[in-house]
Amino acid sequence: MNDTPLDRKRFVERYARFFGRERVAAIERLGYLMVEASGEGPYITDTEGRRFLDLWGVGGVHGLGHRHPVLVAAMTEALRTEDFGSLFHFSEAKARLAETLARTTPGRLEVTWPAVTGSEAIDQACKLARGATGRSQILHGDHGYHGVTGFALSMMGSPSMRAWAEPLIPDFQAVPYGDASALASAISERTAAVVLEPVRTDYDGRAPDPGYFAEVRRLCDAHGAKLVVDEVVTGMGRLGHLWGIDHWGVEPDLLVTAKGFSGGLYPMAAVVMRPEVLAFWGDDPYRIISSYAWSNVGAVVSRTAVEETERILPHACAMGDRLGRVVEELAGRHPALVRGVRRTGLLWALDFRDEMAGAFFVLGLFQRGVIVVASAQNLAVPKLYPPLILEDEQIAEFAEKAEDTLRALAG
Q1: Domain extents for the chain?
Q2: CATH number for the domain running over 69-307
Q3: Where are the beta strands (DSSP E) in 279-394?
Q4: Which of 117, 166, 209, 314 is 20–30 Å from 401 (CA)?
């Protein structure tokens, strides 16, 4: 067998049928097919030797860059000294991670429920809210993206990602994101939970008005509903605080984390909650089971990722201010293409005047060796999720290639 790295053409010829030829062909037609070879820091290299500056990081999975040396060292040592572990047994590695989450999350969030993926953790949070309240209705922001499993998919804003799997789980209702009066009209004594992201990341990158989350908290308290904050994307420093909801100074009942929670090295997720959420639990400790949740190895990696994020976040925010000036200047030089820029912490959304221009901006940057992402529900809004390790060299590279792309689009 020849193990020589495959270029794109030979990869499609050899492997496309195992991933679904239609799926691979669609990505190839978009001009976005890349066969990864390696990743290091803020860069990905493909099997043809092309290097890409990664300003997406799978929405924050690689928030600390690819193969961060501190995390690699921690994982290497954990593989040498730790067993994978079992969901039926506790360990010091798991306990130290749970203790770290209790220390860093806002307010009285203290109890952690382990999970593997963000979608799974969102599902668990919705079920816990139903169990804690004895109610069924889940309210959520419109145009949301909370994952693709059962409960999470029931909140999916994109019809193309949801409709083919219907009917989904009943008693989910979308409310306009950021509109407290609309939430006040929808919430009632039958509402189990209100599920929101600190910023609406997938549709338009919009942050709510400053007083919105305080009013959501008041409404949940008044009606006995649980506030679930989805930090899968906005956590781990993305909004300039370790947890995005800290940007608004509000304590949720449950907080969900995943993606960058383990620095891109190990699948890890969690629901962190107020202790009283589990008051309904009773004598059965195994009402939720996830066989691969929180390996001891993964627990070491995630704790290291949280601590490393805390350490570098001040410098990352300073670099974010420099990148922010570059993005604003780019938009200012091309008003015929870009209406404006939205920024919350280290998340940027560029508001293009039409979807075609937004899509071609993403593709044009990819062709020039920079990866950004368009919103799944709104191609007119490309987004930047730069890694927290970004430095002046990468900012300059983005500025040059983005300017070249925008000039090409204008021409």
Answers
A1: 69-307
A2: 3.40.640.10
A3: 338-344, 347-352, 370-371, 373-375, 378-384
A4: 314
